[in-house]
């Protein structure tokens, strides 16, 4: 159902900037076509609808063609007003939507602005699009935030672009390879060895097993280190077994050969202990915190002697070999010998820690036994 035309609407659209001559031509054509359609509507509704569409197309098209080239926004407003007067608000809204779609599709990106920054800011404030005025389009076109690094700033002409510094790499965590390496032949760990007079007395058995390397009387030997000593138990065990099974050792003297075991089923035991624990393990012998002992099935080596050696020996490594062979010699049945004279070679069972009584120090039971050449 059509609505009576409104001169006030036409006047409002005319005031928005369209030339009066062009607007009046389009409005007159549209209204004339609308009157003809209303007279025919009573005779044939379907024919009336077709006729109405043709008339509106001709009349409104003429008005839009007359004004679109000069004032497109004003022309669209006039056409929408006429359609609303005759066909209702929904039809007018459809016309506005079509116009806006066509208008947005014909637009292209504007050329770069040459307006000075100050003038642009004033113009934006006057039109309501400057800073402080938000629109839906502004929100849609706002670039999303990103965790990516910011692009490098452009360098002046002729200069290389600045390099963006990378964050420092994390320091590598300490690994097992950075731990001190035990000294071969002793198992001592670290460069400055502190001798604690007394520790807990808890013993750590060196893990490992190995058969005896030669024929003869087999002694199964367990090797242990007191907990808290700066000594690697397994390296210490290797040095003990290397000394006991040396060709100049007890096998050359009486056929004894030594197997390594970490079980409690052993024939002999070698323990490296602090001075205080050595004194306790050697009772009833008195080792006075300085000496070692061989008692029953256990050879107790005083850590103070193992770490610092003896003033009677120029070579600490050779003194350690003596200490092992001498104390294990007691375990397998040998007693002390005496020095036979000034300048003579001592036997391995001569006490040689505090003094050699004028004898030449000797670490081996059979020092003259042949030793295979090193490969």
TrEMBL record:
Per UniProt, the ranges with Low complexity bias are 116-126, 174-186
Which residue ranges does the record assign to the DUF3152 domain? 200-357
A Pfam family found in this protein is DUF3152
Q: Which residues cross the membrane?
A: 48-68
Residue segments, region Disordered: 1-24, 102-188
List keywords of the entry alphabetically: Membrane, Transmembrane, Transmembrane helix
Matches recorded under InterPro entries: DUF3152
**Protein name, entry field:** DUF3152 domain-containing protein
Organism whose genome encodes this protein: Promicromonospora iranensis
Q: What taxonomic lineage is listed for the species of origin? A: Bacteria, Bacillati, Actinomycetota, Actinomycetes, Micrococcales
């Amino acid at each position: 159902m059509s609505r009576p035309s409104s001169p006030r609407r036409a006047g409002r659209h005319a005031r928005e900037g369209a030339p009066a001559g062009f607007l009046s031509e389009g409005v007159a054509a549209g209204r004339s076509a609308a009157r003809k359609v209303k007279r025919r509507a009573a005779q044939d509704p379907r024919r009336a609808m077709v006729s109405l569409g043709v008339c509106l197309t001709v009349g409104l098209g003429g008005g839009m063609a007359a004004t679109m080239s000069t004032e497109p926004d004003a022309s669209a407003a006039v056409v929408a007003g006429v359609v609303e007067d005759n066909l209702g608000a929904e039809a007018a809204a459809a016309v506005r939507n079509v116009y806006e779609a066509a208008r947005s599709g014909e637009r292209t990106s504007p050329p770069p602005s040459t307006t000075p920054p100050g003038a642009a800011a004033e113009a934006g404030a006057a039109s309501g699009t400057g800073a402080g005025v938000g629109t839906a389009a502004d929100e849609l076109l706002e670039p999303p935030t990103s965790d990516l690094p910011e692009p490098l700033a452009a360098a002046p002409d002729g200069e290389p672009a600045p390099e963006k510094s990378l964050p420092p790499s994390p320091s590598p965590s300490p690994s097992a390879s950075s731990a001190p390496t035990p000294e071969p032949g002793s198992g001592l760990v670290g460069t400055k060895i502190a001798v604690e007079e007394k520790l807990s007395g808890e013993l750590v058995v060196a893990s490992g097993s190995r058969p005896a390397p030669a024929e003869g009387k087999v002694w199964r030997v367990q090797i242990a280190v007191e907990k808290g000593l700066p000594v690697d138990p397994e390296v210490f065990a290797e040095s003990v077994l290397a000394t006991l099974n040396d060709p100049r050792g007890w096998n050359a003297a009486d056929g004894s050969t030594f197997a390594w075991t970490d079980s409690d089923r052993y024939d002999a035991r070698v323990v490296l202990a602090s001075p205080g624990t050595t004194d306790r393990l050697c009772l009833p012998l008195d080792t006075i915190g300085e000496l070692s002992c061989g008692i029953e099935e256990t050879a107790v080596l005083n850590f103070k002697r193992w770490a610092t050696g003896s003033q009677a020996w120029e070579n600490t490594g050779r003194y350690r070999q003596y200490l092992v062979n001498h104390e294990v010699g007691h375990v397998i049945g040998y007693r002390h010998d005496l020095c036979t004279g000034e300048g003579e070679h001592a036997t391995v069972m001569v006490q040689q820690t505090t003094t050699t009584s004028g004898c030449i120090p000797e670490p081996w039971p059979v020092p003259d036994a042949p030793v295979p050449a090193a490969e």
